[in-house]
Known about the structure:
The protein is α/β, with parallel strands linked by helices. The chain has 4 domains: 3-53 and 102-183 and 310-378, FAD/NAD(P)-binding domain (3-Layer(bba) Sandwich); 63-97, no CATH class; 186-307, FAD/NAD(P)-binding domain (3-Layer(bba) Sandwich), CATH 3.50.50.60; 382-495, Enolase-like, domain 1 (2-Layer Sandwich). Helices cover 31% and strands 24% of the residues. It has 14 helices and 22 strands. The strands form 5 sheets. Strands 1, 2, 3, 4, 5, 6 and 17 form a 7-stranded mixed β-sheet that branches. It has a 5-stranded parallel β-sheet with strand order 8-15-9-10-11. Strands 18-19-22-21-20 form a 5-stranded antiparallel β-sheet, with helices on both faces. Strand 12 (273-280) and strand 13 (285-291) form a beta hairpin. The longest helix is centred in the first third of the chain and has 26 residues, at 90-115. The chain is globular and about 70 Å long. Residues 135-150 have low confidence and may be disordered. The structure holds flavin-adenine dinucleotide and 1,4-dihydronicotinamide adenine dinucleotide. 1,4-dihydronicotinamide adenine dinucleotide is lined by residues 187, 216-222, 224, 239-242, 275, 306-309, 354-356, 386-388.
Amino acid sequence: MPKQFDVIVIGGGPGGYVAAIRAAQLGLNVACVESQSYADPKGEVRLGGTCLNVGCIPSKALLQSSEYFDQANHAFLMHGITCDNVKMDVTTMVRRKDNIVTQLTGGIRGLFKKNKVTLLVGHGKFVPSPKRILTTPSGTSFEGRGFPEDNPRENEPWQIEISSSGGNETVEAKHVIIATGSKPRHLPGVPVDNKIVCDNVGALSMESVPKRLGVIGAGVIGLELGSVWKRLGAEVTILEALPDFLAAADQAVANEAWKIFTRKQGLNIHLGVKITKVSVGKKSVSIEYENGDETATLECDKLIVSVGRLPNTDGLGCEGVGLKLDERGRIAVDEHCRTNLENVWAVGDVVPGPMLAHKGMEEGVMVAELISGQAGHVDYNTVPWVIYTHPEIAWVGRTEQQLKNDGVDYRVGQIPFLANGRALGQGDTAGFIKMLADARTDRILGVHVIGNNASELIAEAVVAMEFGAASEDIARICHAHPTLSEAMHEAALAVDNRPLHF
Ligand code: FAD
Ligand code: NAI
């Protein structure tokens, strides 16, 4: 008799482990299946998925170390602090990052224990079951969700086969939550060895600072990891296919970021390029590309390929059970993360929406609560975005271009950090806060921050938007002085043309 659970979660990343913990908190008998994608030096599987192992957490650790190095070299001087001969020991930096990963991934194991979530190590896959394939009585494929109402098999458990080096095991559950995440997209003909040509995995573990670093893709990873190695002394060149820089961000923020990254920080970014050939040698790589009518070649010692990520449905057995994918290979879900199969849910990077850890975690909580009969919900309009460059970039809600395209009448309040006493004291006045509010109702529609600590400042805007606040609400809230948050206050006042300090 196979082991029985109320819920089986496939994937132990932020979407999966949070779903498992929340479902267990709600009294359900839960197992989480995690493959051996990430293992510690002893070979023990590591939870936390991309985020904890090779994503959010290690990248932010390196960003912090490299930021300190950069400050010691360039920013301390204005405070009267001289640091001669500042050195970076890359091995120590990388070891610190690895220790943080060990600590946090171990922490999730502890949380599983505390919440009585069963960890099943191995690759999870739906057992194809002819009984469960969705077919109409006439035998044609059934496109709707779940089974026809009178289908007596509706309550039969799903079977998941778990394969590992130790053998195969089949387990059963009424509900399955798929949280298998994503993997880096590679370019055809550009093999990634994570030594010379790296994706996020190799880019987070370089053993020394490359003299010349090439990056394909000026997206979030390209900018964050390009910044890390640039601060440590690499000459960084980023090649981006799109003609626009940071197309998803508000145009004013993208323009400001462009100026700072290229002119002040010296990142070489080429937009609108077409990569034509990548030749990998033993110690270097050469990238040929077209830039308008010109052709050029970039020679570098290492290359990071960061051109987006793909949903991970490899070997999940989708076809055998009739699980529907969308045109981009993501698992098709409704706004409550329900798939086309009864009691099968999917969350995180493997479903449409931004590939962000916090979005996956919220979906995990929603699904666990829906399974246990509660009213789970995610407001996709208030999912914040953060890019951890320096200055940081963060936003929530719609951009000015989107409001224009949507024909919304809006008002804008924009305040530079240069007018903020705390920013001046910190010696870090780059950037601004821009608030967009509905011209008729004053409801906040979007907030865009570029500046020091934007990642923390955006939280106030998220809370405000979740509560349906007007810019006037923020304008009438007492903000501590002197803090960077006063710029949020002033931006709200500026929506009504009455900033006090600008
Ligand atoms: P994942 O984290 O990818 O986890 C999926 C898990 O499922 C993996 O552990 C995998 O081994 C396992 N798995 C897959 N298939 C199976 C199977 N069949 N059986 C068993 N197990 C399986 N997001 C942010 O919000 N903030 C950031 O600062 C940030 N920084 C990032 C930096 C980098 C370099 C990268 C690459 C990503 C970053 N992200 C960031 C994105 C974030 O990591 C992802 O959005 C998040 O990890 C997605 O969570 P998930 O649970 O959906 O999937
Ligand atoms: P991305 O989607 O952010 O950026 C990829 C970039 O590569 C795009 O600008 C795209 O136009 C460009 N590109 C695609 N094909 C190309 C080609 N052939 N030649 C040149 N340029 C090309 O993807 P990225 O940076 O790989 O990150 C993946 C995801 O991971 C992000 O979308 C994000 O969801 C997540 N992430 C989030 C972070 C955060 O929240 N701070 C940090 C890092 C990653």
